[in-house]
Here is the input.
Amino acid sequence: MQASFGTTLPEVQSVSATGYGRWLDTQFATPRATTHWAFPRRSPEAFFGVVESFWTQAIRGPDQLRQRVTLALYEMFVVSGNAGDLEFLAEPLSGYVDVLAENAFGNFRTLIEAVSRSPAMGWYLSHQGNEKEDPATGRIPDQNFAREVMQLFTIGLWELNADGSRRLDSAGQPIPTYGQAEVSGMSRVFTGMSWAGGWDGPWEFNRPMTHHATHVSMSEKRIVSGVVIPANTSGPDSLRIALDTLFNHANAGPFFGEQLIKRLVTSNPSRAYVGRVAAAFANNGAGVRGDMRAIIKAVLLDPEARDAAKTAETNWGKLREPILRYAAYLRAFSATNTQGRLSLWGYDDWMKVLGQAVFQPPSVFSYFRPDYAPPGAIRATSQVGPEFQITHESSTTAYANFVSTVVSDTGFDMTYYHPENAPVKGVYTTELTLASQPDALLDRLNLVLMGAQLSATTRTIIKNAMEAIPITGDGPKRRVQTAIALCMISPDFVVQK
Here is the structure.
C-alpha cells in the first residue's frame, strides 16, 4: 500500500516470495509502459485525456513504484490544471507529469532543474517569459517561482537539524532560511527562460525551457547560504549555481525526506526516521548526494516503516487520500468498462466533492499541507494529519455515497461526457464464488483490498451484515457488494498502516 496504488494477488505472492528489497529493485528496473504525452487524446485541449492516462498508468502500469512516487512528487511540486492559463489543458500537464515520472528514480538535483525548466511550471508560477529588471520603468522580475522553489520545493522556511527538527537561535527562536533579499536575488536567477524554440514560441510543453540571453538579468544575485552570484554571470550559470546551492543546503535532505515519508508511509515519523532518510539523501553509500533510489529505499525499508508492531500505535500511519482509496478498489477488482478502458473523466466531479480531483489541486500548496493539524486530539498532542484538511462532514458523507455507487451494478453513468465513456466497474468473479463463505471472502478482501489491516471488530460487523442477506437470488452479488462497501468505509481501510 505504501509503494503502489493498491494490491493484486500476484503482487502479494511476488513480494512474499522475494522480499521487499528485491521487489523495489525490480520496480526500479521496470520501464514505463507509455508516457502521458503519448497517451491518445482527442486534442491538445482534451484535459480528460490526461486524467484517463493517469488512471490507466496508475492502475494497470507494471511500474507501480514509479507511478506512486510520481504522484507524491506531483503533490510536492504542484502544477494545477485548475488554474489560469493551464485550466483543463492536456499538453501542459502531460509534459509536466512525464518530467516527474522520468526523474522519480534519478537524482534530486536533476529533478529540481527539470521542474524549474518545465514550461508548465513556468506558466503556473510565472517564470516562463520572466523579464530582467528595468530601472528606467521600475520593472522587477517576477518573484513567484523564486519564493516557492525555496519554501515548498527544496529547503523550507526554517533552518533544520539533520533530523528535521528546527534549529533555534540563542533566544530559542527558529531561524529563517531566507529573507526578502534572497527572494529578490533568486528572482533574477529565474529571468530569461522561455520556450525552447524561441522567446515567444512555438509552445512546446514537452521540451524544457531554455535561456534567451537578451532577457536574462546580468545583475549581481545574492541568494541563500550567503552565496553571491557575480554580475554578468550567464543565465545557465546563474541557474546552475542557484540550484547547486539549494541542493547542497543542509535542509534539503531532511526537508524533502520528511515530505516523502508523509506522502508514502506515515504522517508523524520519528525524528530518528527522518534523520536516517536525510542521511541517505546526503550519501547513498557510494558518495552520491540526492540519489532518489537510495532515498526511496530509505523511506520504505526503514525499520519503522516495516515494523508490524507500529500498526497498533494510534499515531502511526496516515489517512488514505481519496485518489488512493479509489485506486485500491480499481486495482483489487481489475476494474474496466465495456471498451476495456479506464475512462474516468466524469468521476472527477465526484473527486472534487471528495477534495481531490486528479491534477487539480486548489493551489501551489497542493490538496493539503504537510503540516496541517486538525483540531482535537491530533493537534493537542502536537501531531499532524495532512489529509484531514480535505476531510469534513460533507466529504465524509459524499465518500460513503461514492463507494455505494462504485460497487453497484451500474456504476456511474458518464456517457454525458462522451458516448464511449461507459461506466467503469469492478470484476467480482472470484468474490462471487465465496459469497456463501463469509470468512473466506473476508480473508480475500483483507488480502487484496485492506492491506491485511482488517480488525476483528470490523470483520465481525461486516460478517454479520453479509449473513443478514439471503444467499438466494441476487443474494451472492449483494453480499459481495456489501462486504466491499463496508470494507472501504471502515477505518481499517481509510487509515493506511
User: Anything to note?
Assistant: The two ends are 9 Å apart (CA to CA).
